[in-house]
Amino acid sequence: MKEEERLFKKFGQLFPAGTVLFEEGQPCSGMFIIQEGKVRLYKKVGVQEITIDVLGSGDFFGEMACLTGKPRSTNAIVEEDSKILIVQPEVLEGLFRKVSGMSLKILGHLAGRLEKAYEIIEGLVQRQEGT
What we know:
Number of domains: 1
CATH topology: Jelly Rolls
Helix content: 40-55%
Distance between the termini: 58 Å
Structural class: alpha+beta
Order of helices and strands: HEEEEEHEHH
CATH architecture: Sandwich
Largest sheet: 6 strands, antiparallel
Radius of gyration: 16 Å
CATH class: Mainly Beta
Shape: globular
């Protein structure tokens, strides 16, 4: 059995398009790793949905609430039928303590997300100033 199949059997679930994985304000239920498919992260601002990112195979998300102990800061919805691994918070914490390479990868990923957030904020400010 391939490693991907073994991991899916242990941690994976199939999610149809349209499934809401989590919403802003919810507590951490784990980190998600996409094996196949697409997930959109977005923020609700009034009645608008502002897309933060669209993630695909190999991408992970949902770790911030687990790391900070604070509620989810975004919403996540499955954009196309997806195979997703769910890493429970206690397993994630153990991985951070034991696997320094994983910690560095997640830090790099968080830095990239922060950069995207700054770009979105800049675009919103420019749009507001142009109005």
